[in-house]
Specification:
GO molecular function, one term: serine-type peptidase activity
Organism: Flagellimonas aquimarina
Mean pLDDT: 86
Family: Belongs to the peptidase S41A family.
GO cellular component, one term: outer membrane-bounded periplasmic space
Radius of gyration: 29 Å
CATH architecture of one domain: Alpha-Beta Complex
Strand content: 15-25%
Structural class: alpha+beta
Keywords: Hydrolase, Protease, Serine protease, Signal
Number of strands: 22
CATH superfamily of one domain: 2-enoyl-CoA Hydratase, Chain A, domain 1
Largest sheet: 7 strands, mixed
CATH class of one domain: Alpha Beta
Low-confidence stretches: 1-29, 186-198, 720-725
Shape: globular
């Protein structure tokens, strides 16, 4: 979308440049004020639906920023909030005057309260919890008042820590009971195990450990988790908290406008392109250094077999230079040292799992995150063979569109499936949050002759119609698209276009996510003439809305499936309509398009599928599971008594067991990798394992099973005409 700048955005860039945001203009201000001024300027002039900076805007920022910093109300006191209240209606004025007094005061108080919180949890966790007392905690914090004093705040922490520890305590007891039963099964004496779960008798033992000792170990576990959390918090710098403040302001415009700090912009680019330059390992911060948590298939570490999961990186050097000790360093800063341009060498001082220390030199390379990319499999159902393409996102390299992107990859997978002789294709867009608009238009063109795919409108501008102008059809056979509540943006464009053309049958949730807006990423450095503050990051700005070719918006409403199949999230609030500050729904005039006439029984196929769904016991079970999950989510008052907690857990387990068959379902379909991929398995056992796991999950997937049923039912007009040869037919 980077190249898809609208006229309005070009006007902004010119206008901003003419305003001369130079160092001289801000010689008495810091980087934060420069950022605030730049971002609000761009928002006011470039956002699709800019907001008035007034007292109402100010109070929304006030409430939301406090909520972002302290959502569980365990840091600030009521007196702090009263002190902050004088800024409730002044934030809009501060923004206009590039004043950050409100942020500074709140930030400084938060740092103080967080320091105090560490003392509180240390003190609370030094004392045993009594799980025989009847008391409850409300885990819905939204309408809870802030604590009126430190005594009340400590009590709030006590209940929260007791709640956190109760689950750990229960797990440890369950584990010991399992050991006891195993010992009895091996000929142990039941009397010697002395099982006694009466918590009023802490000397009761579970295989050489008392209940009292389990309680102590549980508190230590909770403390360790909190220590790690506050260690992460301690790594954050003031600029990290200021980014939170900036994004609270930005979020008032809509849920998808977002400010990226320089590091976040790099992560966004990696996510969109599915690649980066480095060594190919995922790291986790540990007190001893950075621990290898995962090795990415195909990367330098994987190829060289030079590191293993569990190894700890202690020092990082650049091509023979003096290494830098990264113990205690922020993980992001350590990663910056380890990553680098393709072809360069990084020297890592590593502690192996056996304690030995050695230096490993690795040549950096481009690392591809394969899980981000399209993948396909063949599906065998009785005598028929079909194809399935899974697309996690509409990825693209914004710097070079000719590099790997979703459209070209899906085209390759379609061609490979044609070579396999498949009779229909399922395109799985479930959980696909979208991505590049350009790739959607190209991808849709694989399945139709030509015509409009999506309409786009900028604020105050005439609509633009994005069309497929290539008359070639790569696949004109039966097509099903799978969606769910998390299919968003570009996924909705593709599903909507195929639905409007009646080119594909859309199967899935009642409606998709409902994101009908377009964002452009604007590097802020491009706006400033000169800058001594370093990289300013970028802003992802909502500049347009897109519309179906029938004129309707997908905003809020999403795409309604032709065949609705419930899933476990059917009753949970996940969509755009459940976000803060979404833009509204509207419609424009439809584009000129012609419905595809390839199917002779589209409506009959949909009707038959609906009948199958109505009588399917597995579907009824999924519906019941979805309702139960909603009930669980709405249950916010939790007992802190072990007996009551255990009873609730046992009831939940009993209810959960009723849905166990959902995980054991067998569609009897057979899934196989394509030939090109099976050839890779000899070199990549990890890839083989990933695909085996994927195929096993697909075989349990009733949505895929029904998609295959629909493919089997669909008949093509073209088949009736022996003189016409389908593009989808091999040979």
């Amino acid at each position: 979308m980077k190249k898809n700048f609208t006229l309005a955005l070009l006007v902004i860039l010119v206008a901003v440049a003419s305003c001369s945001f130079t160092n001289k203009s801000f010689e008495n201000d810091d980087k934060d004020k420069l950022l605030l001024d730049l971002i609000t300027y761009v928002l006011e002039r470039g956002h699709y639906e800019p907001k008035d900076l007034n007292d109402n805007f100010s109070t929304n920022v006030f409430d939301d920023f406090i909520d972002v910093l302290d959502p569980t109300k365990r840091y600030f006191l009521a007196s702090d909030i009263r002190e902050f209240e004088k800024y409730r209606f002044q934030i809009d004025d501060e923004i206009k005057n590039t004043d950050i007094t409100f942020f500074n005061i709140v930030y400084q108080r938060l740092m103080k309260r967080m320091d105090e919180a560490q003392d509180i949890y240390d003190e609370v966790l030094s004392q045993p919890f009594d799980y025989t007392i009847e008391e409850t905690i409300n885990i819905d914090y939204k309408d809870q008042e802030f604590a009126s004093n430190k005594k009340q705040l400590k009590e709030r922490w006590r209940k929260q820590l007791k709640y956190n520890t109760l689950g750990v305590f229960d797990n440890k007891i369950d584990n010991k009971l399992t050991e006891n039963l195993a010992a009895i099964g091996e000929g142990g004496d039941i009397a010697s195990t002395n099982i006694n779960l009466n918590l009023k008798n802490p000397n009761g033992t579970l295989k050489d450990i008392t209940i009292d000792e389990i309680e102590v170990a549980s508190r230590e576990n909770t403390k360790s988790t909190l220590d790690e959390f506050f260690d992460f918090i301690d790594d954050l710098e003031r600029k990290d908290w200021f980014v939170q403040y900036i994004n609270t302001i930005v979020d008032e415009f809509d849920p998808h406008t977002f400010y990226f700090a320089p590091d976040d912009k790099e992560k966004f680019d990696i996510g969109m392109s599915g690649k980066f330059e480095g060594i190919g390992a995922r790291l986790q911060k540990k007190p001893e250094g950075a621990r290898i948590m995962e090795i990415i298939s195909g990367g330098p570490v994987w190829r060289d077999q030079s590191l293993e999961v569990g190894d700890e990186i202690l020092k990082v050097g650049q091509s023979g230079e003096e290494p830098i000790d990264i113990v205690g360093m922020r993980l992001d800063d350590a990663i910056k040292l380890i990553k680098g341009p393709k072809g360069t060498v990084v020297d890592l001082t590593v502690r192996r799992a056996d304690g030995t220390i050695e230096e490993v030199s690795i040549k950096r390379d481009v690392v591809l995150l394969e899980e981000s990319y399209a993948k396909s499999a063949t599906v065998k159902s009785e005598e028929n063979k079909y194809g399935l393409i899974n697309l996690p996102k509409f990825y693209v390299d914004f710097e070079d569109y000719t590099e790997r992107n979703a459209a070209t990859d899906v085209a390759k997978e379609v061609e490979r499936l044609k070579q396999e002789g498949v009779e229909g294709i399922v395109l799985d867009l479930r959980d696909n949050g979208g991505g590049s608009l350009k790739t959607v238009v190209e991808m849709a063109g694989l399945f139709i002759k030509d015509g409009p795919i999506v309409q786009v409108r900028s604020s105050g501008q005439r609509k633009e119609v994005h069309e497929d102008k290539d008359e070639r059809i790569q696949w004109d056979g039966p097509l099903v698209i799978l969606v769910n509540e998390l299919s968003a943006s570009a996924s909705e464009i593709l599903a909507a276009a195929m639905q409007d053309y009646k080119r594909a049958v859309v199967i899935g949730s009642k409606q998709t996510f409902g994101k009908g807006t377009v964002q452009n990423v604007i590097p802020l450095d491009n706006i400033v003439r000169s800058n001594e503050h370093g990289d300013l990051g970028a802003i992802k700005l909502t500049t347009q809305k897109f519309y179906r070719i029938n004129g309707g918006s997908t905003q809020l409403e999403g795409v309604k499936s032709d065949i609705v199949v419930p899933d476990r999230y059917s009753y949970i609030d996940l969509g755009e309509r459940d976000q803060e500050n979404p833009l509204g729904w509207d419609k424009i005039t439809p584009a000129e398009y012609k419905i595809w006439d390839g199917y002779i029984d589209f409506e009959t196929t949909v009707a038959n599928s609906k009948k199958r769904m109505e009588g399917n016991e597995q579907i009824k079970l999924i519906e019941d599971n979805a309702k139960w999950l909603k009930e669980q989510q709405d249950e916010t008052i939790v007992s802190l008594s072990y007996d009551a907690y255990k009873k609730r857990e046992e009831q939940a387990k009993k209810r959960s067991d009723q849905f166990k068959s959902l995980r054991e379902y067998d569609s009897k379909l057979t899934f196989e990798s394509l030939k090109y991929e099976t050839e890779l398995f000899t070199q990549d056992s990890v890839l083989r394992e990933k695909r085996d796991r994927w195929h096993k999950n697909l075989a349990k997937d009733i949505y895929v099973e029904e998609a295959v049923n629909v493919l089997r039912d669909l008949q093509l007009n073209n088949i009736k005409n022996s003189e016409r040869k389908l593009a989808s037919v091999k040979g």
